[in-house]
Amino acid sequence: MLNFDEVYLVNRLAKMDTTKRVAFAAACATRLLPLFEQYAVNFFSEGSETIRKALNIVWRSVTEGIWNHEIINNLIENVMDIMPEEDIEWTPLHAYAEDATASTAYTLRALISNNPREAGWAARRSYETVDLAAQKIIDFKPDKKDSEIQLLSHPLIQQELQRQKQDLADLESNEFTKDTFTKIKERAFSHPIVTVE
After folding, report:
1. What is the DSSP code string of 66-114?
2. How far is the C-alpha of 13 from the C-alpha of 26, rounded, in Å?
3. Residues 6+ apart with CB under 8 A from 37
4. Domains and CATH numbers, the chain
């Protein structure tokens, strides 16, 4: 059974160059994109394109190996501006949208900071999203015997941890090429992390 180990993850990410590290973070954030877009449809239509635009710029920057710090800083501000407010009536979609915006912001910051922790935090937000979704599905009770094991073993959590593991393996592979970024990007866009009806 896979587990989210942030220290181990950051150590692995620290051994990668910036573009690989950011591709990993971008894959995590991209899998959250449909949740943010669903939130935007229901609660915040003005922000619906912000995350997608930011992630498309990140993917292009990673693939081309060049980016503009000023543009990335502006994108970070735009993303943070659309994060759901804490003082409104909170729904699971608000929590998922917060994870999506935070994961995207960490991905952008990883691009200009060269800090592997930023990419690790982007992955943590993906993990927290599936953790919350699984808690709702199984009606999680933390005081129940073996409840943490039951939660961790939930397919939603294990699938996301497996995706992160696969992304890392692809980025660390001896067969890595620029096309690997495209493969990871396409996989992230085609496998959203959670589907909410």
Report:
1. ---HHHHHHHHHHHHHTSPPTTS---HHHHHHHHHHHHHHHHHHHHHH-
2. 13
3. 48, 51, 52
4. 6-190 (1.20.1590.10)
> Whole-prediction pTM value?
0.94
Q: Is 139 left (phi over 0), alpha (psi -120 to 50) or beta?
A: left
Question: How high is the pLDDT of residue 125?
Answer: 97
Other residues' Cβ atoms within 10 Å of the Cβ of residue 113: 14
Question: Terminal CA-to-CA distance of the chain, rounded, Å?
Answer: 28
Residue 196: its pLDDT value, please? 67
Cα atoms found within 13 Å of the Cα of residue 69, Cβ hemisphere only: 3
Mean pLDDT value of segment 42-50? 82
Burial class (CB in 10 A: 0-12, 13-18, 19+), 192: middle
Contact 97, 84 (CB under 8 A): yes
Q: Which amino acid is at 148?
A: E
